[in-house]
Amino acid sequence: MDAGRTPSAGTAFPSFAAGTGAPVVTLRQGEALTVRQGDAEPLSLRLSAAEGRLILTSRPAGPADAAIRGLSAAIEAALGWHPELERLALDLGDSADLADALRRRGIAVETAAAPLTILPELFMQQADAWLGRPDLPAFPQRLVMTDGKRHPQRPPKPQGTVYARFIPWLEQTIAFRAATVEDDLPHLHKWMNDPRVAAFWNEDGDLEKHRRYLSGLIADPHMLPLIASFDGVPFAYFELYWAKENRLAPFYDVQDYDRGWHVVVGEDAYRGRAYISAWLPSLVHYMLLDDCRTQRIVGEPAAAHHQQVRNLEKSGFAKIKNFDFPHKRATLVMLLRERFFGDRLWLPAAAPAELAA
Fold first, then answer.
1. Is 171 known to be catalytic?
2. 145-191 pLDDT, tens digit each
3. 300, 313, 338, 354: which is the annotated catalytic residue?
4. Co-location of 124 and 138 in the same domain
5. What pathway is this protein said to act in by its record (predicted)?
């Protein structure tokens, strides 16, 4: 599906609100939306995209939290189906408890346009909708020393699925899960020995080398290896790192919660701009949601990889400078939290060409 295409009647949009088990599904028939949460009585709404208005028409009895999950799913679907909407007025009728809860959570705010207004740049920062552990607050800050580097103590690493989001222009779900040696060593071994990957990573080798490599990253508190999939099919390997403890830290004015990443797209079927338009912003989205104190996402691609640097610039990253690691000449790139959400970079821009090895 193209990013701006209006869905046909009956289109289903799954939302992965954490704590609900199966996805919360929004079904559309004309302007009528029906939100289903398992066997519970559905939530009903009316979406007038032309007016930028979402109207609650029927709410089942029960706790406000269930209704908020349903409303959040409907909002995500409305904004996903209509990315041109810069705001969405929400009419809840006499459900004052819901209105108050939405304001307190920052899902809705009062504007001159409507007492309850959904702003995409606020809504997309609601960790409940996409993270596998939204109930955890920001980890308390305690400064510690590691190898002569002073940095915040990092939280325990997550397990299982950490992020999932339906991509409407692909009509597929992207998900990230924490890598394990038991499940993912074969993927890593295959992908690292792909000549195309090895040319940039220089990590080709035998199975035992890759077992040690992955085990070391899993044990390292500042690294988080992830496996990415589309509709359950693994296609890529990501390494996320806290920049303060990373080899990158001495080369710029690093902040405590800066986050960086490396990527291997291992499956040829998932290379190219259509998939990059989904996995790259989703990866950035996850890093920004994982800790609300993260204000900058950084990267250090090889300076000689001109296509990758250009594609990152097209995706919102600013080129800061070139510098020399011991093993390569690199380009420092950076994306600000304010720009990602303010410019709605979770949506496809001018689609970049193939980005990753």
1. no
2. 999 899 999 999 999 999 999 999 999 999 999 999 999 999 999 99
3. 300
4. no
5. Siderophore biosynthesis
